[in-house]
Amino acid sequence: MTVGVVAGMAVAGLAAPALAHVEVSADKTTAGAENVTLTFSGEAENPKAGIQTERVVLPDGIAPSAVTLVKAPAGWTFTRNADGFTVGGTALKIGTGAVWKVKIAKLPDGVTRLSFKTLETYGNGDISRWIEIQQPGQAEPDNPAPLVTLKPGPSTASATSSPAESSAAVAADPSTAAAPSTTPVAAPAAGGSSTWWIWVVVAALLVVGVVAVLLLRRRGSSPTPAKE
Questions:
Q1: Domain interval for residue 99
Q2: Which pTM does this prediction carry?
């Protein structure tokens, strides 16, 4: 029975994932934070060669141009790639872990988990791929990508509420309904009325009537010529 238990443990040990990981930590852990320093540490797991390069793929929301090197192993250089960056140089001694630091100009807003897929290459060409995304509430995968967990940033929901949401809020609260407008409405200009010509005709008739009355009065008051 003892032999069976030992054999079972040996099989389980062979099936288990390597204990070495690449891990990352941040000095600021709030979404949207600026000038954040990330510290990466890669454990050496190859008994035949030392770590030579560490290639990091950045998560969405962080551009390679927003990353600068803070610290790396002696003699290593920093190179930006299309999707991230690489630090590397002369292979480290066998069994020596790699530690490097970079500064991120700004973390993305509205996220709480940032995964940094990392390819760890050794001097003999072997590659350890730490690229599996860790899912919340699930067991850690065999080759987890380095993960930073963030706290939500300041809420801006009230400042960015949509017009539909604002209208719904007003409709739900009668006390906030707008009072009827009391601003007087100006009458349409005379020139814009379609009946302006009627007034012109009326005015003309009045003028003609006045002239006719005056002429009749003038004739009636004229003296009758004397008969011879």
A1: 18-137
A2: 0.62
